[in-house]
Write a structure and sequence with these properties.
binds guanosine-5'-triphosphate; alpha/beta; 8 strands; eight-stranded mixed β-sheet; Four Helix Bundle (Hemerythrin (Met), subunit A); Rossmann fold; about 10% strand; about 50% helix; about 300 residues; binds magnesium ion
Length: about 300
């Protein structure tokens, strides 16, 4: 599985990798790490979505340790991978579900970022670990959203709690909590709508869901996971800020890392928020949700040989 993930991640990140890797090759063939070279590297990192703060930090470190030295592109890539892995290591944390049973996960995020898909993948993952899940179709507004979650529920053989059309998602989540407790489910995943164009209404809806869940279990939701689509690049930063205003986001899932040319955003997110990245999405299938490994990701991102 580790090997499969790495292969998948590498091919998925190919477009991001090419950007950085080719840039380094162009800039650093037979060249000393002087001011001009460092400036070029800094621009390259910013263009690859790592953000100005991370770029400045890496350049400071390079200046301290390598200034004036001859460096081959391969050496630069390896050093860069080390720097990035150091930034990512503190946020690469699997979700710890030991706090409570049922462990209640509220899934939030902008439309199309992968909330429903990620819940399906997680349900499947935990099933393989011998854990039972229950899913709540909290996006009661869209029939297609409910059906999509039901398909994932069938695939993972887990029950999906569905309300009437336009039912109150908070009430539905409350009933689902009771059922999950009664049935002894290990996990309860609450899917939500991501209609950000009406930010006030969404905020009210999400806050109400949290309030009502707390009536059954003061410690719940035990995780509030925000899905971010890696292809949106810098906009992911704004999405984190927006959702943090609405609910107490506890962790991130970065989706669509397959085929995104903007995977560097994960590094910018680590620097800006220090929120754990519990898993990453590298495809549309159930098995395409993987643990986030800082070293592997960093190597794949810059195209450095060892991983
Ligand atoms: N390639 C790829 N596609 C993904 C990934 N995760 C989700 N998708 C696809 O992205 C699309 C949107 O995913 P959803 O799970 O429906 O997103 P959502 O956040 O629930 O969207 P709304 O319910 O509209 O708010 C679907 O076509 C998914 O198959 C991923 O990691 N990689
Ligand atoms: Mg959805």
């Amino acid at each position: 599985m580790a090997l499969g993930f790495l292969t998948r991640l590498k091919s998925g990140l190919a477009r991001s990798t090419t950007k950085i890797s080719a840039g380094i090759t162009d800039a650093f063939t037979k060249r000393k790490l002087d001011d001009a070279a460092l400036e070029e590297l800094e621009e390259l990192l910013i263009a690859a979505d790592l953000g100005p703060a991370v770029a400045a930090r890496i350049i400071r470190s390079f200046r301290r340790t390598r200034f004036g030295q001859d460096a081959s592109p391969a050496e630069i890539r390896a050093a860069l991978a080390d720097e990035i892995a150091d930034i990512l290591a503190p946020i690469a944390k699997p979700l710890d579900i030991s706090a409570k049973k049922p462990f209640v996960v509220l899934m939030v995020g902008v439309n199309g970022t992968g909330k429903t898909t990620t819940i399906g993948k997680l349900a499947q993952f935990y099933r393989e670990q011998g854990r039972t899940s229950m899913l709540v179709a909290g996006d009661t507004f869209r029939a297609a959203a409910v059906e999509q979650l039901q398909v994932w529920g069938q695939r993972a053989s887990v029950p999906v709690i569905v309300g009437a059309a336009n039912a109150d998602p908070a009430g539905l989540a409350f009933d689902a909590m009771a059922r999950a407790e009664r049935d002894g489910a290990d996990l309860l995943f609450v899917d939500t709508a991501g209609r950000l164009h009406n930010k006030g209404a969404l905020m009210e809806e999400l806050r109400k869901v949290v309030r009502v869940i707390k009536k059954r279990d003061e410690s719940a939701p035990h995780a509030v996971l925000l899905t971010l689509d890696a292809t949106t690049g810098q906009n992911a930063l704004a999405q984190v800020r927006t959702f943090k205003e609405m609910v107490d986001v506890t962790g991130l899932i970065v989706t669509k890392l397959d085929g995104s040319a903007r995977a560097g955003i994960v590094v910018a997110l680590a620097e800006a928020f220090a929120l754990p990245v519990h898993a990453v999405g590298v495809g549309e299938q159930a098995a395409d949700l993987r643990a986030f490994d800082a070293t592997e990701f960093a190597s794949a991102l810059v195209g450095s040989g060892s991983a």
